[in-house]
Amino acid sequence: MSLKKDRIVTLLIMDFAEIGQIFVDDNRFKDQVVKFPNCFKNPQLCSEFIKNILALIPLEEIKAIAFIFQRDKEPITAELILKRKLRDFFQEHEIFCHFPQLETASMNAALLNIKPKVKEGECIAVIDDPWLDMVRCRIFRKKRNFYPFCDSYEFSFDQLPDVRRIILLRHKLKHIIYHTCPNNSSFFIKFGISDTLKDVQNVFSDIRFSILQKSINDAFSDAIPGIIKHLMDGNEPKYMINHFCNTEFTISPSSVICTNGDHLPFQKSVIRNIKTANQFLTLSEKESGEIKRINLNQYFSQKIKITFTLDIDMFYDIKVESLGPLVLPSVEHVLEKSLKVSNGEKIKIVFTQNHFLIFVLTNGKKKAIKNSDGLTEFPLYISFAEEKPITGKAAFEVLEEKPTFVIYDLVKLSSKNVHEIKASNWPFKLTKDSDNETFVEFDTFRGRRKTSPDFFIGMILKFALGVIEKKTEKKFEEIGIEFQGFGISKENFVECFEKAAKRINLKLTFL
């Protein structure tokens, strides 16, 4: 067997199935199927799925791999997690990875097999056999060597004459590709796909008409290698549609930000007013419902800019930026409104680059708690040089003699972007596991250890609670957290701090 890295692998996976179809280059693989554990429900099974693929074709032979997911039952968020894990693995091994939509692949297959002859600006239509008496028609307009999506119709079969009239009024339709199931496809007929080829031909008798009789699987094996080569090499193929969105995304209150048929990659920005307190921005997808929620209380401005992006693999992102002059509420006001503490006192911890400060708010007045040296700043250092870890100034004093035993820059370590902002002179080491989780390796009294950043934040929070209880003689189950002097959004730190607080049954409000 050749070990030349030149094979293009395609997998077709249904979210309800236990097996998937596998193709190598433009041929179906001899075993035809690969076992698919339900990675949508359990992303940890992704490594097992990858092993099943590599049992059929060696990793060293794969140049590129494409996954086509037909998602009927699972939310788009589950698909996104699975795709990220697959992409990270194959890109780590320098293998090009692509996630074409089922519809994009099937439309490209129709074009490649039929090779319609139309002029610039003229249109073709791809019509499928009716499913449950509903006909679906996609319109594509020729632009150089590409065929961008321009319109879509779904209608009952008895509406076909009326739809024909509408299509011909709106588009220069010159060629129809009809995708029919093969004559022996009793399975499709049993489940509602009827053969209406002759009726469609009669309605469009004056339009050039071609029939694609290949199965969906065989058509895919023709199309995907061409798509991959175009994306990798940049060469324009003769027959290819542009990638397009096949669903709809909305932001609250109800406003469509990306719709079915929008060309990919896609980016759109909208400006919104922040009208009330405790307002949330939600991103929803047509089939999955709400997929992301953003608390707008963190943006202290009257207006915000919302930017939604969607790439050709359907990886989505939404970013929010403040616009105009800042309108900053007092921290004390936020504490009074946010923290539900029955004893009348509220606690705020302010984290800076190298220290943290503790404030007690009583009847609108703020007082800083002092450490044993009479200072309000508590050093953010933890030493593991002794059997019992030590925190603060005593830990800082260990740094010069035993630097690999001391952890510092704790807030930076808690950032989502820690690998981008890490310091080159840190005596401890950052690593990632197979799930892309960050870990810190360091020396301890009992030897080398590895743990996640939230472990250190949990230690600091527990230490701070001890100081607070000693000074106030009260226990607090909820405190406010503020970050100063980092130059990036507090959202970068929230996830790690919340994990840390969960370790010690503490509730946090981020100010």
UniProtKB/TrEMBL annotation:
Matching InterPro entries: ATPase_NBD, Hsp_70_fam
Alphabetical UniProt keywords: ATP-binding, Nucleotide-binding
SUPFAM superfamilies: Actin-like ATPase domain (SSF53067)
Gene Ontology molecular function: ATP binding; ATP-dependent protein folding chaperone
Short name of one Pfam family: HSP70
Domain of life: Eukaryota
Record's keyword annotation contains Nucleotide-binding: yes
Protein family: Belongs to the heat shock protein 70 family.
UniProt-recorded name of the protein: Uncharacterized protein
UniProt organism field: Panagrolaimus davidi
